[in-house]
Amino acid sequence: MNIILASQSPRRRELLERVGLKEFQVASPDVDERVGPGLSPARMVEELSLRKARAAAKKAGPEDVVIAADTVVALDGKALGKPRDREDAFAMLSALSGREHRVYTGVSVLRGDRAVTEHEETAVCFRALAPGEIWGYIATGEPMDKAGAYGIQGIGALLVSGIRGDYCNVVGLPVFRLGRMLREFGIELLRSAEPQ
DSSP secondary-structure letter at 160? Predict the structure, then answer.
């Protein structure tokens, strides 16, 4: 049995390694990320994570376990994807300034014909940002490949005044939820042991 992470995200790879999962392969599934109108952010990330898992599973063995995830930032119930350009990043960060938003990550674990899909939701609050600060952050290049135009694990941490929920979810992989899901497939990330 191989474990396959269906993501090229270095942040997701690092989170898996941090919780003790060292032996896994990385796949980059090519999927259509368009979704139908009217889907809530939670349903959107669940659907996209399952699509990614199924695409990666086509090249996997029947006993291999595929892990896939998709993350969006949502403000007032509307999903914010990755910014198209610097002006789009400025608009997103300006909208998030001084407000609370939600980060949703859908996670799918798949082996053979069995798939489990769930999502995690975390509330994140930004401090009020001056336009010059926003442009300064954009100049670092960090916002350009991230949902909602920020990365909490990097310089973007300077924008965040607080969170309620799973920090790892905001980074892109809710490891607490994933650990419970993997247990359903017989994979224990934290084994029980009695003192010697």
Answer: E
